[in-house]
Request: fold
Amino acid sequence: MSDRILIVEDDKMIAELEREYLNANGYDVDVCNDGLSGYGAALQNDYSLIILDVMLPGLDGFELCKKLRAAKDTPVLFVTAKQEPDYVIEGFSLGADDYITKPFNFRELAARVAARIERYNVISSKKKNMVDELDFGCLKLNKNSRKVYVDDNEVVMTNKEFDLLWYLASNPDIVFSRGDLFYEIWGYDSIGETSTVTVHINRIRDKINKNSAGIQFVETIWGTGYRFNS
Reply:
């Protein structure tokens, strides 16, 4: 079964070109030319990805993205002529998964669509098998209570510290770059200051590495990133 994509674009010529190219790449594509009809279509159907323009009649792309994020976690890719950094940051802060500016290469568009759909499928598969507790002996994490225990003593974590530790511990022995972690925890690509990842990693280490087993749970892989040692 082909992945189904929704394009919400008020420029009918661009929308039709996008549709034709994505059809040629094996996708089923629906098109809406205004924000309100796009919102209705997105709620009524299950799409693998939604492509949004920013400047839309009726309901602009940013508002539409915000409303969609309150209802669904379908990947959203902005395709827009708005290139200013503030617009890009706004898009990511509202929950967009990617952002490409006009004029664009259709091969790049298809590549980004494929990448985002694949990423979403991997994450969805992990969620189906997701556990609520992680136990590494002297280190235990509970996702529901958002509590961390070292040697059975609770260690207080900030929200971002917990999210970062949980993500690393849920994917043990895999090396993640700072950019990877910034995207996963803060929600957008490295437009922000990825050094904040290092700051949070150091705080986490201070709190969990002082355990009875002497295990360095969060390791630095020099020149690459960080890895959780299971």
Remarks:
- The chain is about 45% helix and 20% strand.
- The longest strand covers residues 4-8.
- Residues 56 and 184 are 29 Å apart (CA to CA).
- Residues 4-128 form a domain with the Rossmann fold fold (CATH 3.40.50.2300).
